[in-house]
Amino acid sequence: MNVIFFTHPTNHHQTGRASIEESNRRAAKSKNEDGKPIRLQSKILAISEDPFNPGAVYVAESAGSVRKVALETGETLALYRGPTAPLTSVAFSPDGKLLFAGCWDKTVWSWDVQSRQQRQKYEGHADFVKTVTSVRVNGRDVLVSGGADSKLIVFDIKSGEKLHVFKDHLRGIQDIRIDPVSIQEGSSKVEIFSAGSDREIRQFSIALDTAKAGNALIAHDTSVYKLFFDEDGDLWTASADKFAKCLTRDSGWKPNLALEHPDFVRDVVVYDQGGWVVTACRDEEIRVWNKATGQLFHTYSGHFEEVTGLALIGSTVVSVSIDATIRQWSVRPADVQEAKEEMQNKKPQEEQPKQESMLTEEEERELAELMGEDDSTIARSLTTSSMADKSREEPGAAEARPKLVNRLHESRSPYVRGHMHNPVAWQLWDSQSIALAKKYNQLIFVSIGYSACHWCHVMEKESFMSSEVANILNESFIPIKVDREERPDIDDVYMNYVQATTGSGGWPLNVFLTPDLEPVFGGTYWPGPQSSSPTQFGPDGPIGFVDILEKLRDVWQTQQARCLDSAKEITRQLREFAEEGTHAQPEGKGAEDLEVELLEEAFQHFASRYDPVHGGFGRAPKFPTAANLSFLLRLGMYPSTVSDIVGQDECARATTMAVTTLLKIARGGIRDHIGNGFARYSVTPEWLLPHFEKMLYDQAQLLEAYVDAFRVTHEPELLGAVYDIVSYLTSSRIQAPSGGFHSSEDADSLPTPNDTEKREGAFYVWTMKEFKQVLGTRDAGVCARHWGVLSDGNIAPENDPHDELIDQNVLSIQVTPSKLAKEFGLSDEEVIKTIKSGKQKLREYREKTRGLPDLDDKIIVAWNGLAIGALAKASVLLDEIDQAKAQQCRDSAQRAVGFIQQNLFEPSTGRLWRIYRDGSRGDTPGFADDYAYLTSGLIALYEATFDDSHLQFAEQLQKHLNENFLAPGPEPNTAAGYYTTSSTPIQGVPGPLLRLKGGTDSATPSVNGVIARNLMRLSALLEDDKYKTLARQTCNTFSVEMLQHPFLFVNLLDAIVGLEMGIRNITGVVAGQAASGKDAVIRRTRAEAGLAASTSTATMAVVDARGESWIKGRNVLYRDLKAGTPPKDFLLVCEAGSCKTMDL
Description:
Blueprint: H1 17-29, E1 38-39, E2 44-49, E3 56-61, E4 66-70, E5 76-80, E6 87-92, E7 98-103, E8 107-112, E9 122-123, E10 129-137, E11 140-147, E12 152-156, E13 162-166, E14 173-178, E15 189-196, E16 200-207, E17 211-218, E18 224-229, E19 235-239, E20 243-248, E21 254-260, E22 265-271, E23 276-281, E24 286-290, E25 296-300, E26 307-313, E27 316-321, E28 325-330, H2 333-345, H3 361-370, H4 375-381, H5 414-417, H6 431-440, E29 443-449, H7 454-464, H8 467-476, E30 477-483, H9 488-502, E31 509-513, E32 519-523, H10 545-558, H11 560-580, H12 598-609, H13 626-635, H14 640-646, H15 648-667, E33 681-682, E34 690-691, E35 694-695, H16 696-713, H17 716-729, E36 744-745, E37 748-749, E38 759-760, H18 768-775, H19 777-787, H20 817-824, H21 828-849, E39 855-856, E40 859-860, H22 861-878, H23 883-903, E41 905-906, E42 911-912, E43 915-917, E44 920-921, H24 928-945, H25 948-964, E45 966-968, E46 975-978, H26 1007-1021, H27 1025-1037, H28 1039-1044, H29 1050-1061, E47 1064-1070, H30 1077-1089, E48 1098-1104, H31 1110-1114, E49 1130-1135, ...
Parallel strand pairs: 29-30, 47-48
Antiparallel strand pairs: 1-28, 2-3, 3-4, 4-5, 6-7, 7-8, 8-9, 10-11, 11-12, 12-13, 14-15, 15-16, 16-17, 18-19, 19-20, 20-21, 22-23, 23-24, 24-25, 26-27, 27-28, 29-31, 31-32, 33-34, 35-36, 36-39, 37-38, 40-43, 41-42, 43-44, 45-46, 47-49, 49-50
Helix pairs in contact: 3-4, 8-10, 13-15, 13-16, 14-15, 15-16, 16-17, 16-22, 18-19, 19-21, 20-21, 22-23, 22-24, 23-24, 24-25, 24-26, 26-27, 26-29, 27-29
Protein name: Spermatogenesis-associated protein 20-like TRX domain-containing protein
GO biological process, one term: carbohydrate metabolic process
Organism: Talaromyces islandicus (Penicillium islandicum)
């Protein structure tokens, strides 16, 4: 069963190019027939050869079955059922009569091979069983299993008795192999080798009545996934350190050959007759190496997801993968040579020009088909499945439609209203517009964007201001404009469609829909008739928006029945994905099985993509993605138990990666060094050239990350960034006088108030001439060196395709004040004074002479919740440094809460409204992110102020979430996470096609991740286990995907740590009479919580025992608290089901 992760790629067509290219590659590769693929329905996690039939294999499926498959025909010969959780490994008894499978449910299942009847289950593990094997010892058959609990258990197969239990590994066991040299008829003991996530390989001598563990073998830097003995008795290993190695027996298991790979090595087998070593890598490839020389000879390519296992059957290697296919590769030397020559002789694909355009290769290919002459080609491009080739009567012609008029003046959205003077007769997303489409039988064209989106403005200028485009849209379509920030539910569904069908995504998002709102065709930016850069699109010219409109118009008129069939089929598939997109396990089989070890796997992912020179992860464009930075910082903030599991060195490195990245960002051009705040992302790897839009949600998440980073390191530059973001958030431009926070500032602006043409970044860039004009010669020299300003500009030509930034400079810190002092013969104090003075002068000049970027002054509840939480967290830090600034943070956060309560909250129903603008609220009820982010912010504000009203409001919002957004679980009275939309539809407005669940973190935090963390904190603060149960079930909803891609779920991982380690709730009890007593109690409470307060392993409360309060009545532990005689303050520390008091 597959899953679509509903993640937003980024803010415009080029954002997340690496992930877009990856999606394109995978979609194309999935169609290949290399390796004679046998396609199954479930992800395959392990493979074993059939001990009696070389023409068959047994595979372990994530659906919980073992399947016997014929290699020649692909036929399923037998199916072994029973488990409801995924199976990780397959093995047979020594006589081949019993089949074993390790399972996530912590047991080993067994079946009679012939009858397929279940036999006994073998129990003893406290976590997943990851590997199983069997062997005969002194005439007795034993089963050996290894688990994520780090246990190796030896069972008597017949009785099920545990003969031996070892726990020598520090972390989970990944694989077990029997040393073939030790297996002799009637031998009294055998040697077993195990591979662990702790990078150790261990050897065990096993007899029936005795067993001995040997010393650890260290051959790799991190997890060892698989082991394999060759015919010489040497041991081959596959590791996450990207190496496969040969450990030779004669040398005492020292490595004598290392095969380097580009990614984790998942499995290794050796075909001695051909002299080959064959490896499976996480990059989906099967590599064939010369065993004697270690040289790579050939690469087999076919799988389009990670390969999970290999089996050597005669002269064939059989591979299995998460892509649910079984593939076969001949390793006969002649066949490998032939495959290599065939690959080398393939005519190279003509290299396409490097795509500076906004179209992915998949879009180009799909549109190339769309533009063809043949109607059958057109039809094929509009469907995802084959259609019967028979003509059907098209629907009757619709009656003539009256002329449309632009209705966008009715909207409150600044983005939507910005298009109300377009010649396009834009309609709103409402019942009136959909009724028009149905009545007159026309396709709907939906264009989705947001105010700060640069490429949305480009498409408006090129297409939506064009009379040619307007004429087609107004006559042949119902054009609708949507603000994605106002209606994320609509955006999510159609973004999912476009990503699934083209492999790309971003904004503007443009989709053609049937009158029933089912998608027909979509994409992102398409160049219009007024495009200024047609040469970007290749020698044959661009595929233009007008071409697309004309072809879709013609297809709808001539192939309407096929369009409708296609749209319904696509919608059916999307609905199935939405319904089956999570693999919830029954109660008790999910979140408790999600191990803390997943933290290390997520860490390894980020470590493998880390840029040690510039910070950040992967190639340009680079996004801060604060959720990931916060995850890395939390690894060093958890209790020591976590670092014992993940590794102290790993946790230290995680902190270094996060802090280095945050410092590079703070020094880079992505930061507005003159006016505060951070841009959305950087086009260049060194964080120099941003796309200049500033988003409220980015400021809030970065503020939290900088606060945590400073707490860990006490690095002054990080504190400077904290002050910077606080200043930006509390400025009059971002925080409205009423208290709410505005959404974003545009990337584009007028270079001067007299200009009529906006330019991206015009407000933020500088020339050397301006520096000298504003600052004077000496100060300009100092400031120019400090911020990297050059006479001919600091933007490379390849990053300025439109020549808009010639001689311009983006400011970034290049030289420190101490170095400048030496260069200019000044004191450090003089340099710092010059830079501060220069910053103020440049700011005044900028605001006086340049047009301000447009402000999207919508107040969105969700993003306000993020800002409230970040300011609350900053106030706790600043209490120790600058109490006036701390109070400013608290006041700002509390004003925002008051604004929301007064204007966007219905106390009688507990319902939120999402948007406020221009003096009144909008008509869109809150989505799950509004409740989740605001609840999180309120909990943080409670821990900053210990004002019960914030916690009470938070619980009220959580209750509304539970009543209106919670998905039912697989068993009665269980839950399966939270939908993004309420079960109550919006009156008078068409809802989304699908109700989706968000589990992954991206530009904004995972909604279900934030909810799970909120539930954990509420459970501890209110001593209410039902919230903890809901948190566990929410994590369980995404368990299968988290185990495969833990790095996508960093907020859910934090909740899992809280579930596994428990939460320590520190309550300061005020009972004494001293006037300063409460302040002292708060300080002591925070000190006791320490760094863990930023994680799901610690919460803080303060209770006044001298009177009544809401929290005293709500939390059963507080109800009987009294001042005592004599009255004195104390701490109440509760963890692991018990509480103790501590004197101050």
